[in-house]
Design brief:
With about 375 residues, this protein is mainly β. The chain has one domain: Beta-galactosidase, Chain A, domain 5 (Distorted Sandwich), CATH 2.70.98. About 5% of the residues lie in helices and about 40% in strands. A 9-stranded antiparallel beta sheet has the order 11-12-13-14-29-23-22-17-20, with no helix packed on it. Strands 1-2-3-4-5 form a 5-stranded antiparallel beta sheet, with no helix packed on it. Strand 13 and strand 14 form a beta hairpin.
């Protein structure tokens, strides 16, 4: 090959092999954490009036604006997400989301002990779980159909937060032209390890105030009752006729007062999803705000969903200095059941070597 053409050929080949990182996707600094690492935020834009911003710190959904209104709660920078008072805004939660009783479990005849960070229990992967680590920005781009996406990765070392095995994780957020925010998870491990991933976004379709007037429907006829420390008893009970019954749409505030004096201090319950049919991705919940006309559907491959109504927000100061009130957002966290690693009657959350964990969640915004 002509020696003058060779550099051009190599440059062309390199461009063909590298990810397509195209405008108008914007990548910018999101501030620095205490270890000196700078986080990035990736802006996904569609033609239907939506902008979703994803941070590499915690693989976090920082914001989701629709026609100028931000429908998720969050902070302005990575340092705020690193702070101890961050109530898990928008993050990827794990290795095991929700609670593990007394922070311990028996696996393959070995007792593992984890951090206790929620009363006597382990919560959301521990104080330095997946929500407080820097994920690697693998690639981002725009598909031919106009969908924009970003792919992140993280390798959780053996023993991190007490969990066994080196865990190799990838996660992709996609914002479609139809205002669907899709999250795709994939993971492998070199040892048997518990794994139960979810996204912990707080939704407020009005963009301000509380969600007590939001209408909610959950496709679930039963739930897993808990003890005084919010650990499931192992039973599965019907929701029929009680404050947990959202089989037909009703406002979140309609019966919330019946729960404020319980250990949950509001809604903080795992629902056992009704899953008729054979399709992996099925609807779990419908949320709507009468004041704005916005509606959100949650579609999942998972078997459970934690309903949490921001019971402990209590004037958390978030983005642009806004104080988020108690009940200022609602979390709809698709998951396997809490404490499943200690409850053999619940479906297993153990990922074995040679297996691949996959899961898809879609938040479908409508107006």
């Amino acid at each position: 090959m002509n020696r003058f053409l060779l550099p051009l050929f190599l440059l062309f080949a390199a461009c063909q092999m590298s990810p397509r990182n195209e405008d108008p996707i914007l990548v910018s600094d999101f501030g620095t954490t205490t270890d000196g690492t700078t986080a990035r935020v990736i802006e996904l834009v569609n033609s239907a009036g939506s902008v979703a911003r994803i941070s590499t710190f915690g693989a976090t959904l920082v914001s989701w604006e629709h026609e100028g209104t931000d429908i998720v709660l969050g902070f302005n920078d990575a340092a705020s997400y690193e702070a101890e008072d961050n109530p898990y805004f928008g993050c990827t939660t794990g290795r095991v989301c929700n609670r593990i009783a007394e922070g311990k479990f028996l696996l393959n005849d070995r007792m593992y002990r984890l951090a206790v960070n929620n009363g006597p229990n382990h919560l959301h992967g521990g104080p330095r779980g997946l929500h407080r680590v820097h994920w690697h920005l693998l690639a981002y781009g725009r598909s031919n159909n106009g969908d924009s996406w970003v792919r992140l990765a993280y390798i959780s070392p053996d023993g991190e937060e007490g969990y066994p095995g080196e865990l190799d994780l990838t996660l992709q957020y996609t914002l479609t032209t139809k205002n669907v925010l899709r999250i795709e998870y994939e993971a492998t491990s070199d040892q048997a390890t518990p794994l139960n991933l979810t996204n912990h976004s707080y939704f407020n379709l009005a963009g301000e105030g509380t969600v007590l007037n939001h209408e909610l429907q959950i496709v679930a006829s039963s739930y897993t009752p808990t003890d005084a420390t919010m650990i499931p008893t192992g039973e599965i009970e019907s929701v029929q006729g009680g404050p947990l019954d959202f089989r037909e749409p009703k406002t979140i505030g309609q019966h919330l007062g019946e729960l404020v004096d319980t250990p949950a201090a509001g809604y903080d319950h795992n629902y056992v999803l009704d899953r008729p049919g054979i399709f992996p991705l099925q609807i779990a919940a419908r949320l709507s705000d009468p004041s704005s006309g916005r509606r959100l559907e949650v579609w999942t491959e998972d078997i459970g969903m934690q309903l949490y109504t921001g019971n402990w927000l209590g004037e958390v100061v978030g983005r642009e200095g806004v104080a988020y009130p108690q009940f200022g957002g609602v979390c709809l966290e698709d998951q396997h059941f809490p404490d499943a690693v200690n409850q053999p009657e619940f479906p297993s959350v153990i990922l074995e070597p040679g297996e691949t964990y996959t899961k898809v969640t879609e938040f479908r915004l409508k107006q």
